[in-house]
Design a protein that fits this description.
The chain is about 35% helix and about 15% strand. By secondary structure, it is α+β, with helices and mostly antiparallel strands. It is elongated and about 105 Å long.
């Protein structure tokens, strides 16, 4: 009597069908994941702009003779932080140092304080948040000393050109 062994398992066709189904599901899910990640980066950028606005105003109140700092760096400070003109300890040093050049949540941030004509102290500032690439954010953000977050139209990820250019943009709707 010949004994036939019956092998148990999946055939090659069955495995290929399962792999094809997984690839179809991934093709549907990955773009949604990318959009969700970009939306999270946009929200984080708006929150970071607000944080910087609050820090700028606090710095101005604390160091009134200087006014707003010329850059973003004086708003931070490495831990343990000691409050001074160069390290105000108002924001996380990672944000103040702009993530070591890598940005934060896919965005690069900058702040510029300047004196308006006839003023001795820096009495105006503007803050920018610009996506590092088109895959990390959908638009650029900015704000001036009125603390209104303004944004460029969707898809415009270039740096806001300056104080006047920021003031000309529309405010973010809450």
């Amino acid at each position: 009597m010949i004994c036939m062994r019956k092998y148990r398992g999946f055939s090659l066709i069955e495995l290929l069908i399962v792999v094809a189904i997984i690839l179809i599901i991934a093709a549907i899910a990955i773009p949604n994941l990318m959009r969700a990640r970009m939306a999270a980066n946009d929200s984080s950028a708006a929150a970071s702009i607000h944080t910087i606005d609050v820090a700028e105003i606090s710095y101005f109140a604390t160091f009134a003779t200087v006014g707003f700092p010329a850059t973003l760096v004086p708003l931070g400070g490495a831990m343990p932080c000691t409050v001074s003109l160069a390290t105000a300890c108002l924001i996380d040093d990672n944000l103040a140092q702009n993530g070591g050049g890598n940005g934060k949540s896919g965005y690069s941030f900058a702040a510029t304080g300047s004196a308006s004509p006839g003023s001795l102290a820096n009495d105006q500032f503007y803050v920018t948040g610009t996506p590092l690439a088109s895959t990390t954010g959908t638009r650029a953000y900015c704000s001036v000393q009125d603390s209104v977050i303004r944004l460029q139209p969707p898809g415009t990820i270039t740096l806001v050109g300056g104080y006047a250019a920021c003031g000309a943009l529309g405010p973010m709707n809450n």
